[in-house]
Design a protein that fits this description.
The complex is a heterodimer. By secondary structure, chain A is an all-alpha fold. Chain A contains eleven helices and no strands. In chain A, helix 1 crosses helix 11, helix 6 packs across helix 8 and helix 8 runs antiparallel to helix 11. In chain B, 75% of the residues lie in helices and 0% in strands. Chain B has 14 helices and no strands. In chain B, helix 12 runs antiparallel to helix 13. The two termini of chain B are 17 Å apart. The chains are: A mainly alpha, B mainly alpha.
């Protein structure tokens, strides 16, 4: 009882429609970023790339990029490490408080992010830490490390514990097993988690809003400009940020086949 | 083996548990402590008086909470209806196209939600993508579509679609084809199969999807600010304002605690009833 052909075509069209719906606002931003006029109005009469030139030359924009990049990079590294061990505890080892632990991991994900950001701001204040972009790293990690854990856990579920047991029977220490057996097997999950961590941190707004203090990340700057009135740099910088994400995903998708080919050639 | 498992489990859980205790549970305790402080203080070294909760009821802040919850219910329901056919197709009908869709949908998550919402502002505003082209083709003009309650719900549906779609698809993938085939052979129609077979068997995925969308939409703030203008004030907006313009941390904390209590009770109710191992694909 598979759906009829008409039904299948309908579902495909529906899928394409949803994708179009998801990308329509980005198309609008793309058009706005190449419009000549300082006050945007559709239809666009003349096209220009001057805003891109201006954005790339601007010192503010490069500062913003640099801060966002540092935050995202550090968040990625830490959440890969926390997520790797966290996922083993989540999915691989049978231990007493595992169910409780699984629920603790889910809680920060099931939590309004703006409230979480405020809670962290008060906590930093209570322990006497002045918020800068360093504190934003902590805030991003509270939300992103559990997500990284879940992504790696999906991989850890499909992993055969017999492989680790065999290594142990052959006399491997726990550390050797982790390095030689577990880590290589979970590697695709760890890489996927790293990619997600970077991109989620790169685009995060609600957590950064309260926890960066006087520093600004890219999404925060964009938001400040949006609510204070239109600036032609907003769509341009928005498009640049989107382009950066796309480049990163493209690299991530292209790398594994390249590495495979390289290692195969060298082993021949 | 048992003992080693026990020890390794605790050891590998330790880093993330310690981190979440310091970065998640401790801040929540601070919010709880601030919520019972007297008005407009900035330290915890005061005698608690619970005045913020009284103020919250007297000044009608609970109305914002109701508005937020009502919009969250509406958005969750609409998302369920929109996502079900697509999730079904992703799990059972599409082959390679599922991967394309997954990558396409996940990519949008990586673009900051305020950029995407700003895109809708440019699309829907007067002189925006829709109205602007309509005017130049037909010569008729109409007001922008922004700044009302439906457009806020529209924004919520837009931003949180992936959070409903993927859990649903995961849940539907758990329904064995044999069960649907058997129901069909016994004479069930499409609606009966949906109600009697698919709905109950994919319940864990439905629960996760609805919970996460409800929780996130109830605490959402950017949609109402960017798309809604001043049409309504949602609870997160109210919380943010008590911290920024209001300079009243105890009031903001009391509002935050109320939101956490309402949303958290839903989340905990759901999370304790879900078997995570089953959803995430344990084969043993």
């Amino acid at each position: 009882m598979h759906p009829s052909n008409v039904g299948r075509i309908g579902l495909y069209l529906y899928g394409i429609l949803i994708l179009a719906f998801l990308y329509l606002p980005l198309v609008a931003i793309g058009f706005a970023s190449v419009s000549t006029s300082r006050y945007l109005s559709f239809p666009i009469r003349q096209y220009t790339t001057q805003w891109y030139a201006q954005a790339l030359e601007s010192g503010t924009v490069s500062d913003l990029l640099w801060i966002s990049l540092q935050v995202a990079a550090i968040v990625t590294v830490i959440s890969m490490v926390l997520g790797f061990f966290g996922a083993l505890a989540f999915a691989r080892y049978q231990w007493r408080y595992r169910r409780l632990y699984q629920k603790l991991i889910l809680l920060p994900i099931f939590f309004p992010q703006s409230v979480l950001g405020l809670a962290l701001l008060m906590w930093f204040n209570a322990v006497g830490i002045t918020p800068t972009w360093h504190t934003a790293i902590i805030a991003h990690l509270v939300w992103i490390a559990p997500i990284a854990t879940l992504i790696i856990a999906i991989r850890a579920y499909s992993f055969d514990p017999a492989l680790e047991e065999a290594a142990r029977d052959m006399g491997c220490s726990t550390w050797q097993i982790l390095r030689e057996v577990t880590l290589p097997l979970l590697m695709p999950g760890v890489v996927a988690a790293g990619l997600f961590s970077f991109l989620l941190s790169w685009g995060n707004f609600p957590l950064s809003l309260f926890t960066t203090g006087a520093d600004l990340t890219l999404p925060e700057w964009l938001y400040a400009k949006m609510v204070s009135g239109y600036s032609p740099l907003v769509p341009t910088v928005g498009m640049l940020s989107v382009a950066a994400s796309i480049v990163l995903v493209a690299i991530a998708l292209a790398l594994p086949p390249l590495i495979n080919r390289f290692t195969r050639n060298s082993s021949d | 083996m048992e003992r080693i498992n026990q020890r390794l489990g605790v050891l590998s859980a330790l880093p993330v548990v310690v981190f979440l205790a310091a970065g998640f549970l401790a801040p929540l305790c601070v919010v709880a402590a601030f919520s019972i402080m007297p008005q407009k203080v900035f330290s915890l070294a005061n005698l608690p008086d619970f005045s913020s909760y009284a103020l919250m009821i007297q000044e009608g802040y609970w109305e914002s909470l109701l508005v937020s919850l009502a919009m969250a219910f509406a958005a969750t329901f609409i998302l369920f209806v929109i996502c079900w056919p697509l999730a079904f197709a992703m799990a059972k009908v599409f082959g390679r196209f599922t991967l394309v869709l997954t990558i396409g949908v996940v990519m949008t998550l990586f673009v900051s939600e305020n950029i995407r919402l700003f895109g809708w502002v440019l699309t829907l505003m007067k002189g925006g993508l829709i109205e602007g082209y309509w005017r130049s083709w037909t010569g008729q003009s109409f007001d922008g579509l922004l700044y009302n309650v439906p457009v806020i719900i529209f924004g919520l549906v837009y931003v949180y679609l992936p959070f409903m779609l993927f859990p649903l698809a995961q849940g539907i993938a758990m329904v064995p084809d044999d069960a649907r085939q058997a129901a069909f052979d016994l004479g069930a129609n499409r609606w009966q199969i949906f109600r009697e077979v698919e709905l109950p068997l994919s319940a864990p995925g439905i629960a996760v999807g609805c919970l996460i969308t409800f929780v996130l939409t109830a605490g959402a703030i950017a949609e109402s600010k960017l798309l809604g203008g001043r049409a309504v004030i949602v609870i997160s907006d109210e919380i943010e304002r008590s911290f920024t313009y209001g300079q009243n941390w105890p009031l903001g904390s009391a509002l935050a605690m109320t939101l956490i209590a309402v949303v958290g009770s839903f989340a905990i109710f759901g999370v304790t009833r879900i078997d995570l191992d089953a959803i995430m694909g344990r084969k043993r």
